[in-house]
Fold each of these.
Amino acid sequence: MSKECHNNEKIQSELMGLYQMKSGSIYSSMIISALLLAISGTSLVYAQQTSNSFIEPETAALTTFANSVAAAAPKIIAAAVLLTIGLVAGKVTARVVEKAAKKIMQKANLQNISESHLIEETVGKFDSAHLIASTVKWFVYLFFIVAAINALQLAQLTSALTSLWLWIPNVLAFVLIVIIGSVIANYIIKWVNHELVIHHYGGMRYIGVGVKAVIY
């Protein structure tokens, strides 16, 4: 009887040992699982923070760029419209001016300004009507270019182009003075040649060239 009790106690102690070992392994597994979960959670939080640190500045930059483009879009459209109108207006104005200038110069027999060898050597022959038309065309072009840049609110560039635009009338005035001077010179030379023929003076060609050189 005592022997059976002893065996029962031994079996119970072994079962208790097994139970304690199993419980210890379960607790160990739970602790390891908790540690793994904590580590993975920390890693996820760090990864999310890292990704946010890269994504947020890029998103902010793209948002700022989109807002800038949206704000500048009306100005860009207005500038494009002004440039298109200026291109058409400049070409149409140049054609009208060139046709009118050619008619006037044909009546005055001044299609080419260069009438003497001296002037030809200096500036060569050129179409004065085309020169006037080109000057007027660029005057119109620059007017609309200045307006377009002003629409974009580029103050320094607008100021520089305005100065250039205001200088073009000086070029046009120079061309007109040369043409008017050529008309006057032609009439004076014709009168001088007529007087030389009437009075039978020799060397009319050289005298005519000298008169042209003085007048020009």
Amino acid sequence: MADCLEADNASGADHDRSIDSSSFQREQFDLFKHDFRESAEALGENSNPMTLSAQTKKDIVNVVRTLQKAQFFLDSIPAEVGSELAAQIGSTAADLKAFLVGKGSLDGEFTAQNVNLPEYVHFDLSMLMGGDSEDLSPEAGTLDGITALDRVTKAKIDSLLGAASILLLEYNDLKKKIQSQARA
């Protein structure tokens, strides 16, 4: 009988700990949302850190259209000639399209699951243990993770645009070769 009561008491302590943890995560997420909104207001209405510039979108659209034209041409010729290149072009075009609809980075909204929230606040824990505030290094904020994600996203877009230009050069070479063989 006593074992049963001890088991209930132990699970209650774990339950309290999980409630405290979820409460802290909710508060951290609320702080993140506030900081994100403040930084978006500081940047201005047209400069959200998670959006692509108009020129980048235009470049992506133009490259995707050119890739689609190339894939249409490659699909119209015999399969053994350009099937591998057509598959690579289709894959690159699909990856670039994903960035236009916003699925290349974060999927729409921020949630507590897709934002890197701290498990505890280092400053508060240090002060609780009697530490000195001058000894602490500045913490990386959650917005730093968003700007880092933005940089990674832009780097991935640049690499995809570079790969697309290489694929288009290969396509042009293959097209010239096929046209010269047709003339001969």
Amino acid sequence: MTAQDVYKELMRTRFAPWLREAGFRGSAGKFALPSESHWALLGFQRSVYSDKDEVRFTINLLCVGREQWESMRAAEPFLGERPTAAVYYGREVAQARIGALTPSGEDKWWHLRPRRDVEHVVADLFHDLGEYAVPWLRTAAAGYPGAENGNQ
């Protein structure tokens, strides 16, 4: 089993089910918190340096009002019908990497290797999702101030 296989298996059996239990919809590393007024997105990003021996990944968050997104699209026709958490759109959009929301504020990447215990990675990821990422997205989608402080 390669590191890529470990990542895919964890996404399917651990990460995605946890996020769905928290109210998200999605799969394959792209998730959305349902909201009629906002795009509230969470996306897993694998490092370009990931290979069969190691996968490094982080989590990107994005929240933008749907009306605001449509205004941005009208001004910039190349923008897609919906945003993606992995693209930086500028200061008008609340965006953060999960590490920026933690007390250290440092960029954070998890590392997976084949034939290594992954439970510490899973536990740390679930902690950061529950303590920082999900509350940040819920606050931003509710339109409360403060979420914009996570901008990259």
Amino acid sequence: DVELTFSLHLQIAPEDLLRLTAGDIPSATSFAPEFDHFNFSPRSIGDASHQTKTSFQDLGFVQRFRLQRQTLACFLLMVQKGYRDVPYHNWSHAFAVAHFTYLLLRTETAHNALNELESFALFVASLCHDIDHRGTTNAFQVQSRTPLAQLYSSEGSVLERHHFAQTISILNMEECNIFAWTIHCINLANLPFALSRMISTLCMECVYPIITTVISIFIYYRITKISVGFDSSIKHHRYLLLCLMMTSADLSDQTKDFRNSKAIAENIYKEFFSQGDLEKQMGNRPLEMMDRDRACVPKLQLEFMDTIAVPVFEQLLPESKNTYESMLFNRKCWLALDEILAEEKYPTLGLDYLKDTFLEKRVIKFFVSFQSSNANVSSKTDYDYDGLTDFKQRNILCNGCMINIILW
């Protein structure tokens, strides 16, 4: 029933297909001058289907894997329709993850380390990794004995296995099979397994061992000076790199400017609190982060960043260093928000204060005044947050005069 329900609501309107196949494929920068920069916020774009098509072209996949225009358009529209209208795990999130993956795949490091098929599979996985997400966690699915949990009752994470199954369902449609030429001309026996592994990477239970393995390589080198670093000839090393890239893309909202990052956090906790409300109705006590009556978002954000996000971006590609620095800036902003709320005994339950633009300005000014009093890095003391409408200009200020004084 789950599979049937999913397939029935995926119907492509002819006008949508015509819109996506008409005309030449535009360049990436025609959508926005900053489109190919890590500081760009992809959520500022509309439905993003044209932009995703351009990404396939820009990465060389259209030519290398002989992607037919109509087939690619059908695939993109079906994937887009496969995402539900939930606050966070929606098509906008999928495109944000795919956009960050696109930027990583454009780097020299990724180009030299990964083969074309691995890059292609990673990009497809980034688009499909949360398809048909219900806005609830794996634990909720299992504890509530939902149809999904019963369908995927064997070992493995329920949601990630469902996302993979829906991806394969779409690819099995002849009109959507963007791997058709590749399967015919290249031995792709391991392709479904590769897609499955990359999507399953985003189960949080899988993230911890990957982070631990990657970091241990760097720590060993720093202590012994004996290089056991990345070796692209070792298949498992390439798999670890793919996992690291996939995980970082999934968390990339944490690296955008604080205003955008905070807005996305609000969407995440809307989903969490909705699940928490369901759990209460079922007579269960939700986790703190799912409970609107107990959760303090700034504290939870700091804990998540310190435990997961910061270690991931610290070990990411050399070309993405500015994303790590942006994340550190955002961490300082969350810390400043937490301190302001505590000092003024501001109500921290719920999400209303995340919409408070006056409080947002105070957070930025609080941080600037803090860094000005602790380091002589800039003579600018009045940070006109509203006045900096150009994202690039804002990002330069964040990554320049501010980031340099952060002690990590």
